[in-house]
Amino acid sequence: MPLDANTPDLRTEFKSVGTRPNRPDGVDKVTGRARFGADFSAPGQLVGLVLRSPHAHARIKSIDTSAAEALPGVKAVITYKDIPEQEGCDKDVLVNIMARGTALYDGHAVAAVAATDAAVARKALKLIKVDYKVLKHVTDVDEAMKPSAPVLHPGRFEPVDYNSLETASHVSGKQETKTKTREGSNIAGRYVFGHGDVDKGFKQADIIVEHEFKTEATHQGYIEPHACVASVSSDGMAELWVCTQGPFMVRDVCASLLGMDVSRLRVTPSEIGGGFGGKTTVFIEPVALALSRKAGKPVKVVMSRSEVFRCTGPTSSASMWVKIGAKKDGTFVAADAVLKYQGGAFPGSPVEMGAMCAFACYDLRNVRIVGYDVVTNRPKQAAYRAPGAPMSAFAVEGVIGEIADKLGIDAIDIRLKNAAKEGTVSSYGPTFGPVGLVETLEAAKAHKNYKVKLGKNQGRGVASGFWFNFAGNTCVSINLNVDGTLALALGTVDIGGSRASMCLMAAEELGIAYDDVRAIIADTSSLGYNDISEGSRVTFSSGLATIKAVRDLKKRMCGRAAKIWGIPEDAVKWENGAAHPAGANAGGFDPLSIKEIAAQASATGGPLAGHYEINAEGAGPSFATHVCDVEVDPETGAMKVLRYLVVQDAGKAIHPSYVEGQYQGGAVQGIGWVLNEEYFYGKDGTLQNAGFLDYRIPVCSDVPMIDTVIVEVPNPGHPYGVRGVGETSIVPPLACVANAVSSAIGVRARTLPMSPPKVLAAIEGVAASKA
Amino acid sequence: MSAVHVSTKINGDDVEFVCRPDESLLDVLRDRLGMTGSKEGCGTGDCGSCSVTLDGRLVCSCLVMGAEVGGHEIGTIEGMAQGDKLHPLQQKFLEGAALQCGICTPGFLIAARALLERNMDPTETEVRYWLAGNLCRCTGYDKIVRAVMDTAKDMRKAAAKSSAKKPAAKKSPAKKTAKKGARHAA
Amino acid sequence: MRYEAPDTIKAAVGLLSKAKGTSRILAGGTDLLVQMRSGMVEPDLVVNIKGIPGMRDIVADKGGYRIGAAVSGAELEEHGKVGQMWPGVVEATNLIGSTQIQGRATMVGNLCNASPAADSVPAMIAAGATARVVGPKRTRDVPVESIATAPGKTSLAKGEFVSSVFLPKPPARTGSAYLRFIPRTEMDIAVVAAGIAMTLNAKGVITAARVSLGAVAARALLVDACAEAIIGSTLDDAALDRLAAAASAAAKPITDKRGTVEFRTKVAGVLARRAAVIAYDRARG
């Protein structure tokens, strides 16, 4: 096996990789010792709290903070005036962290206080007088696109000619006639993907199925609320301890918003209690820094659960139309879709990625997807696990399920017939390399769950899903300690066990024991820039950089051995944790183990370390196929998930337990999305269920064991074949469960969540139409 | 607001503290006593991350007033391991990858221990209903439930071994969980 | 805010009577602390009654049981005998929240929180339970259905609180049951609920019945029409149909984040029917 740093060869045999050791951060986490965001405290810290808009849309006529400032114990009160706009900052983020002139959603930050304790801070919030003029609001995506809707950002987005808009209402002929408004529109962006001739394609179809679908916004639902401690000194040096998926992003964004040199702000990430994309931006962090700057003391800000729901970023709600044409044998001849995603009060809904993923599972000659990014009076959306993809998959896989039913073709067979494979030109442009969709479909079909006989009111659903997987900026250091153990410094926050995976890869590459490598997540002053832990990029990118950093270290260690032996560097090779003479001509030296080289490091030239930095490319997409069985109570609409199977391509599973964990966790989040989770707004545009009680994420007794099959079709872009695994698992469940319910009771759910009242109404509708 | 002086016992140690009456036991543990192993996920008793035992009874510490624990005994995650020896549940969670981010883990461990102290042979349904007040967003619960069941199995084996000398260990019923599961199925 | 933990009922009543502003009783605390946390209630006085003798006791009384105001759901369940006598009541109480909540939440707290969706209340109403109200003037026993008047509102006067609930001795061949609908399997507030108690004669004919519906009106309802629908029957299909129709007819629900009018109306009938079948089986023994 060649191990030269420049050889891209794919390793296929492993000693450490693929085993299931305990994670290095595990003992701290089972003993309560691990420090999460709210577990940090700074000596002399103040408590920071944020005052938030009670209105969905309101002009802020005035803010009077004088009474709050006069309250004993209050050390700072801030409004947008204390965070003046800096040149080059992201204006939307600036406005989102503190309203400027207009409150754009229920929960929008309006002011903040820092006080000696929580009771004083709460009292101070009540003393801030805000004079609002309530404005007309809109929270529904279809309503927001109408010319009659209140415009959130007058003059910002181009006026739209509604007559030429390809929207679902256009397709179904229910169009509004009014054209163009002077204030512009709420349509912040339009995206088009596809190839071929869709109209021509549909003419070849024996069957065409088209429907409209709606999904409600869901929240990532991480159990740890956002928390940080900010400390700004009088010399302008600042430190921030924070739970985030991207400490470097937090540093750069906060510095930019507050007009600081990046070098003056050091961000230390805490352990993170879940993120799922929701901790890829800033909310309270710049506010805490601004409070600390004004108060001259450290300030700790911890969100309440209700703030998490009201003010952080859930994902988009979506309104979609999908049309697919097929031949009698199940071959798809054309596919068309219009996707409308609202991303809250600012542009940036994940509709572009939703559009790219919509038909990515299939080999299509004629395909078109149009996506609209729409703003509404809701909190600014944030990424949520495979952002944008689960919604479009819900619509597409639902239509495919119906086509399969109508043609009498097995749900897996129809997908196999049309599956994307190596060489397929994807619906969003690129041509796929080696991908594993067919392998997941075949494994699902062979699984025992697919053969279980179903009873009365029970049904089975199938759905597939796709996610690109990200790569990006990554920087890793590995330091050889005096005793031959290693310290691995990573810049990507560990959100689900990635330190264990990195240690496995380092151990594999060095040929040493897993326990001899310990990984830490470094602060922003200790490593070069790293992109956020998002897009299923960590095991791929940091893994790649870890392997390359280890190769760098190995090269240096071989150099030391060469020095000791007095032979040329290229006459030394690394094998099984030791330097060896490369061949008979190199000389008959006994191997020098990593421990021996470490012991002599000082005498042979000083400390030894390896390093690697890259803007990585070559992430391999991951496909999945899910199968689930449900039982429906026809009298109440209650649903029970009986069995659930996830089959997904991991490329190479570094730590299989945590790969399974990603599959299982994604599936259950998806089950929550389809069954009960939703952002429920009142008529006044305020969120009615801002708590775990009424938001209803799945509890332990709601779900069965989640069966998993790890398919491994290696990604040629990674030395070990790794693909990301974190996100694809949430893409199929929405459609998978909906298809199962349809098979159980003949009711096709096209509006999520398919909560019992909706299912019961649909059952009664079917019964009434039959009667 | 008049502060209250409280003498109590936490993980077997005598502890005294002063708190405001509006502070929860969780606030006291985290902010006054520096015991941050119990987590606040909601503050409203809906997530179980702050689970502790109060006189041996499983409760959410966010729903207990700090002022009312005088004379009672509290058990927290910090007291679960004996010195450097992990509790069998802690060991099994670690080995079985029953945690991803780890924020809910202390709550699950305290809750699972309370279950196994009452019922060493729970069914999967009993485990799931007992733990329904503990939210986990990462794992899908699969590996958590397995870790609890596996620990119970090990504890039964150990009990059987020691019962070779002593009278047989009796299975104490977890009636509540059994009934709840059965009722929902009905 | 002041915190007091008196050790007699008299002292507690004295504190509550004299208190200015908002006073709250701390029994289980599972509603109070949530309301304080959200800012919904900012009490000037909290009176912890757990230390008052009798508050944590379950006492056999006149063939039935008197349950102290601070008895938790878990303690009630572990008692065993109350559950044998009134399974519907104990099951309903044990449905409130999680295992953790069960360690704290009390039946009396559930009653006095006056939520229309309180799980234990329809079951208590069906069982014919009475609440003992202590106060500055006198002590009185009232039917539990008279405590809640509207969401969050009770008929208790200033200085009064409920010190216990009494579950009477049921006649022979009596069965009870409680069912609720929630979208998840646990950790939810009832969207619709039905509590039933019925007594049979030796031939299996229903001679008496009490049916109560939860979460379909501003407070739990005692629905005579439901009882009338099954009294005199052996709970045959026709009686069950009459019961379901009467329950749906009595339901006057609202549409909110937890359910719709249509859903609650329909499912009130479904649950009444299902609960009746369980209660009937239990009555037959």
CATH topology type of the largest domain in chain C: Uridine Diphospho-n-acetylenolpyruvylglucosamine Reductase, domain 3
- Uncertain parts of chain C: none
Largest binding interface between chains: A-B, 58 and 62 residues
Which segments of chain A are poorly predicted (pLDDT under 50) over 5 or more consecutive residues? 1-7, 169-177
Structural account:
Chain A is built from 21 helices and 26 strands. Chain A is an alpha+beta fold. The N terminus of chain A is likely disordered. The radius of gyration of chain B is 17 Å and the shape is globular. Chain B contains six helices and five strands; from the N terminus they run ββαβββααααα. The C terminus of chain B is likely disordered. Chain B folds into two domains: 76 residues, Ubiquitin-like (UB roll); 93 residues, Orthogonal Bundle (DNA polymerase, domain 1), CATH 1.10.150. In chain B, α2 crosses α5 and α4 packs across α6. Chain C has 285 residues and is an alpha+beta fold. The longest helix of chain C is centred in the C-terminal third of the chain and has 24 residues. Chain C starts with a strand and ends with a helix. Chains in contact: A-B, A-C, B-C. At the A-C interface, α19 and α21 of A face α11 of C.
Topology:
The complex is a heterotrimer of chains A (about 775), B (about 190) and C (about 280).
Chain A: H1 26-31, E1 46-52, E2 58-64, H2 66-70, E3 74-78, H3 91-97, E4 102-103, E5 109-115, H4 118-127, E6 129-134, H5 141-144, H6 168-171, E7 187-195, H7 198-203, E8 207-215, E9 227-232, E10 238-242, H8 247-258, E11 265-269, H9 285-295, E12 299-302, H10 305-311, E13 317-326, E14 332-342, H11 351-358, E15 367-374, H12 389-407, H13 411-418, H14 437-446, E16 458-467, E17 472-480, E18 486-490, H15 498-510, E19 517-521, H16 538-565, E20 572-575, E21 578-581, E22 592-593, H17 594-599, E23 609-616, E24 622-632, E25 639-649, H18 656-675, H19 692-695, E26 706-711, H20 733-745, H21 756-770
Parallel strand pairs in A: 1-12, 10-11, 14-15, 18-19, 25-26
Antiparallel strand pairs in A: 1-5, 2-4, 2-6, 3-5, 7-15, 8-13, 9-10, 9-12, 13-14, 16-24, 17-18, 17-23, 20-21, 21-22, 24-25
Chain B: E1 4-10, E2 13-19, H1 25-32, E3 51-54, E4 57-60, E5 73-75, H2 88-95, H3 105-118, H4 124-130, H5 142-163, H6 175-185
Parallel strand pairs in B: 1-5
Antiparallel strand pairs in B: 1-2, 3-4, 3-5
Helix pairs in contact in B: 2-5, 4-6
Chain C: E1 2-4, H1 9-18, E2 23-26, H2 32-38, E3 45-48, E4 58-61, E5 64-68, H3 73-79, H4 81-85, H5 87-94, H6 99-102, H7 107-112, H8 120-127, E6 130-134, E7 140-143, E8 148-150, E9 153-154, E10 161-167, E11 174-181, E12 192-200, E13 206-214, E14 221-222, H9 224-230, H10 237-250, H11 261-284
Parallel strand pairs in C: 1-3, 2-3
Antiparallel strand pairs in C: 4-5, 5-10, 6-7, 6-10, 8-9, 11-12, 12-13, 13-14
Helix pairs in contact in C: 3-5, 5-8, 9-10, 10-11
